[in-house]
Write a structure and sequence with these properties.
Layout: H1 14-26, H2 35-45
Helix pairs in contact: 1-2
Length: 83
Amino acid sequence: MGLAGFEARPKFTEVEKLALRYAAVLTATPVELPDDLFNAMRARFDRAFGCAAEGFSEGAFCPMPARPLLHGEIDQGDDQDGK
């Protein structure tokens, strides 16, 4: 079964149609994601699999791991005041 005309096909569930609408928008050039589609996707999939928010939209970040010392480098310590 082809995807053309998926909106009118009863074999697709509403969730499948939503995902196909989203896929169609994301593969277009330029990508223009309408607010209503974004909100519908977020309402349906934002809490998928019971995953809790990680706080990235609340100013949190992923710290970069410390890089290992290279040959000949001296560890300068972590403190900011030079002690």
